[in-house]
Amino acid sequence: MDGFRQSVAISGGSFYNAVMSRSQMTILTERIDQEFLPFVRKPGRYIGGEINQIKKNLSRCKLTVALCFPDVYEVGMSHTGLGVIYDCLNKIESVAAERVFAPWLDAEEILRDKGIALFSLESKASLKSFDIVGFSLTSELCYTNVLNMLDLGGIGIRCRDRGEDDPLIIAGGGMSNCCEPIADFVDVFLLGEGEEAVVELAELVRSQKKAGAGRKEILAAISDKFDWAYVPEFHAGRELKNAVVQDFDNASVPLAPIVPFVQAVHERVSVEIMRGCPGRCRFCQASFCRRPIRYRTVERIIDIAKACYEATGFDTVSLLSLSTADYPDLEELVAGLHAHFHDKHVGISLPSLRVDKQLKMLPRLLTSVRKGGLTIAVEAAGEHLRRIVNKPLKDEDLFAAVEAAYRAGWQRLKLYFMVGLPGETLDDVERIVDLSFELGKLRKKVDGKTGQINITVSWFVPKPHTPLAWLGQRPKSYFEQAKQLIIEKKLKLRAKFLQFKFHDVDRTILESAIGRGDRGLGGVIEAAWRARARFDLWDECFDYELWRRAFEQSGIDVEAAAQKQFDPEETLPWDHLGGPDKKYLLRHLEETKKEIENSECIM
Fold first, then answer.
1. Least confident segment among 7-11, 201-205, 349-353, 522-526
2. Is the four-CA dihedral 549, 550, 553, 554 of positive or negative sign?
3. Rounded CA Rg of the chain
4. For residue 292, cis peptide bond before it (omega within 30 degrees of 0)
């Protein structure tokens, strides 16, 4: 018996006796108002009722969907994809989609102690009452929260433990393309882009239900009809494809985003201006999986921004893409947004800027862009290492762009570097400090002051569906040595204007071990969850030792798994799960090895 069911049985709770048939809903409003909300630290996370929320009469809808985000409200409400799927489903008259977020530790304790099921924000309906429960998979480290939410909802965590009265468990998002480690817990994975696919999926499930089909019949129908749907139980071994929205300009967009009650990580109007990336950074899964490149028109983007601003009052418009600087009409777009918003005190945010000759011209164009800090993903401090990972950034262009930014009014830089890349040496690691130091001093040419530089250092994780997926991760000792070198070099330079932030090494090892794993890791994930692994992306919750023991129980050394190298000829755990052609990736891998050899010869 799962933990939550056991707690209800022990406490004498009557929730499970009250569960109705699949066509009806269990509404928990009274219990939530009286027994839950008065006792949680942030009730705003759980009350719903925000401006622009969509609430339908669930009893009149032919299909109900719980959209679950396996993190807290503040994070989930900043996730653009969740808002898009919420809007797409609720545009269908007979379908209702409601939101469910992972309850924080205090809220989980109350739910378990009082035998209250996890519930949706809009109608306070129990999770188990919905026809479909869908999860957004954004990271390998959200998997224990997925299991925890299922258990809190009174749903068997493994597919084999669910019956006809249980919802279909569906998952989408970036991790679906490498989902074998959690395949035992999810009925259907939606590969690729969800706007159109989720509508087709909902229509099929609705028609199957109307025809009286049972659970297995519905899953078999999904597997047979869609080549972007991975149903582990019925997968016949064929390679699947990612769903792609061809007409991106007219793709569904929520024009009235929900305004959060609790301050979210990002509170702004977010408009996706292009999809895909012309770059081929060999470490980046998104640049290889999210193809082809598509653009929204300037007119469409401005119309979306206007509508969202009128519906929310947010004071920033953020232009989203993998590489905003590659949007072909960026100058026209920024000018158009500035013309409409400059007198409304609304700023324009341009994340994901790629440094090249185009960026040198951008700062003088962006008169309405907030200039607190300019973010640049440099990735590697040396040009030779950037060539190895296929990021064609020259130091000449980097320095010209940063100087132009200083002259346009930026005072701070935020730089992203990655340590542990193939072909990297410890000299490359030290060069991160030197390069950051030089970029800070560059501001003296403009106004005689030193620029403030915030540097985030992440550790390389070989990602599935990339050319570097066959390579192993560096040992933990290498990352620890690299971190110490960076700290010592900063002290040697007495560079107080450089502020370094390092990703957690243990968490990075876990990402590599799980991300490239197979279905055998399901037992590891379940063991970690049962040992109280929760919110593994949060520093106050993450416990590496807990995970190390969970791997050990399954006879796996987690660090050896992270460092594993694959043979080019072997079948990979994600080969069948969308993504680019394997031969294409292997050609990139060969080019990577040649670049490494060339660098070694030069050095």
1. 7-11
2. negative
3. 25
4. yes
Local structure of residue 192 (DSSP, 8 states) = B
Q: Which residues are paired to 459 by β-bridges?
A: 419
Query: Would you state the structure tokens that stand for residue 196, as one six-digit string?
Result: 């159109």
For residue 203, what is the enclosing H or E element? helix 194-210
Taking the C-alpha atoms of residue 536 and residue 533, their distance in angstroms, rounded to an integer, is: 7
Name the least confident of 89-98, 293-302, 411-420: 411-420
CATH architecture for the domain at 253-370: 2-Layer Sandwich (3.30)
Cα 198 to Cα 35: distance, rounded to the nearest angstrom = 35
| CATH 3.40.50.280 domain range(s) in the chain | 3-230
Domain(s) of CATH 3.30.750.210: residues in the chain: 253-370
Cβ contact 563:581 at 8 Å: no
Residue identified by tokens 């109280």 is 532
197 or 326, which is more confident? 197
Q: Return left, alpha or beta for 292; rule: phi > 0 is left, psi -120 to 50 is alpha, else beta.
A: beta
Tell me how far apart the alpha carbons of residues 50 and 73 are, in angstroms, rounded to a whole number. Answer: 12
pLDDT at 422: 96
Quick: pLDDT tens for 168-186.
Answer: 999 999 999 999 999 999 9
Handedness of CA 487, 488, 491, 492 (dihedral sign): negative
Spatial distance between the Cα atoms of 282 and 514, rounded to a whole number of angstroms: 20
Find tokens 């340590």 and name the residue: 419
For 125-153, how does the pLDDT look when each residue is reduced to its tens digit (9 = 90+)?
999 999 999 999 999 999 999 999 999 99
CATH of domain 3-230: 3.40.50.280
Amino acid at the residue 44: G
Classify residue 345 as left (phi > 0), alpha (psi -120 to 50) or beta: left
Which regions of 280-320 does DSSP assign to beta strands (E)? 294-295, 316-320
What three-state secondary structure class fits 429? helix
Q: What letters, b where the CB count within 10 A reaches 16 and e where it falls short, cover 554-573?
A: eebebbebbbbeeeeeeebb
**What is the rounded CA–CA span in Å between residue 420 and residue 306?**
43
Q: How far apart are the first and last CA of the chain?
A: 61
Structure tokens at 66: 């719980």
Helix-then-strand count for the chain, H and E: 23, 15
Q: Is the CB of residue 483 less than 8 Å from the CB of residue 456? A: no
3-state secondary structure of 317: strand
Burial 472-487 (b: 16+ CB within 10 A, else e): bbbebebbeebbebbe
Question: Distance between CA 89 and CA 91 in Å, rounded?
Answer: 5
